[in-house]
Design brief:
binds adenosine-5'-diphosphate, five-stranded mixed beta sheet, single chain, about 20% strand, alpha+beta, about 55% helix, globular
Length: about 250
């Protein structure tokens, strides 16, 4: 009984600490881009910038910052809904091979435009079915694929391979990119909310530190799991597993 009470106290304290940390992070992450936008508006208001190229550059910076604020608010909104169990999941039975083929083809087309190479191998057996909320699962996978493009570009190698297969009652998706990878000592944190490996570098990449945390929560809602690692010859690896329908 005493042990149980102490454990509950500990969980409560931990929750309170996380909540405070979260508020501090949100305030900081919103204040920085807003201050930037405000600064550029003031400069333009003064009317001293006459060079149209310079004006366009300032407008682009403002646009990037407002896009970042928008994304952060969307992510936070989804999180608050996940926290209070208000995300309305709409699960349905889908044929796994066809469902992922459609999704992968879409990624291939959308990445073609940006010059990023996206390849996939779909070895899922035709008779396999899954119970998924298509929209939410798409969001989780997109966050992982988008990261590969975002962070790979830092290392100048823009490519991701996805292997899809079925084994032991699970469907496995393995993502491998050819970017800089994730430092081994940081791997255990990358699914934490607001965690960014390199604050300075990721700021330039419109990074909120929420993408993988959201992906993980959505995958767990599908009773699946995800782990991250690095390939021995470089680049990040994400392995995601989802239970098959019986
Ligand atoms: P964000 O939404 O800011 O990209 P994530 O939660 O998706 O944040 O990722 C957390 C951190 O993990 C990122 O800041 C980045 O440093 C690192 N990371 C995620 N994916 C990759 C990847 N494919 N290659 C290298 N680093 C990555």
């Amino acid at each position: 009984m005493a042990y149980k009470l102490e454990e509950n106290e500990h969980i409560k304290r931990q929750y309170e600490d996380n909540r405070k940390q979260l508020i501090a992070n949100i305030s900081h992450d919103l204040k920085t881009p807003i201050t930037t936008v405000q600064g550029y508006i003031e400069v333009l208001e003064e009317g001293v910038v006459k060079d149209p190229d310079k004006t366009n550059r300032y407008l682009k910076i403002m646009k990037n910052n407002t896009e970042y604020i928008n994304r952060l608010i969307d992510d936070l909104f989804l999180f608050s809904k996940l926290d209070i169990d208000q995300v309305q999941f709409e699960f349905s039975r889908v044929n796994a091979h066809d469902f992922f083929n459609d999704m992968m083809e879409e990624f291939q087309i959308s990445h073609l435009e940006s010059g990023f190479k996206f390849s996939y191998q779909n070895d899922i057996e035709a008779s396999v079915w899954l119970r998924v909320d298509g929209k939410r699962l798409y969001r989780a996978i997109k966050n992982i694929v988008d990261n590969s493009e975002k962070y790979a570009s830092v290392g100048q190698v823009t490519k991701v391979d996805v292997d899809l297969s079925t084994r032991d009652g699970f469907l496995t998706l393995k993502f491998r990119d050819y970017g800089p990878g994730i430092p081994d000592d940081k791997l255990s944190h990358i699914f934490d909310r607001f965690y960014r490996v390199d604050d300075e570098r990721t700021k330039m990449l419109n990074s909120t530190g929420l993408g993988l945390a959201i992906a993980k929560e959505l995958i767990v809602a599908h009773e699946g799991h995800i782990v991250a690692g690095n390939h021995k010859s470089g680049g990040a690896i994400f392995i995601m597993q989802l239970p098959l329908c019986v």
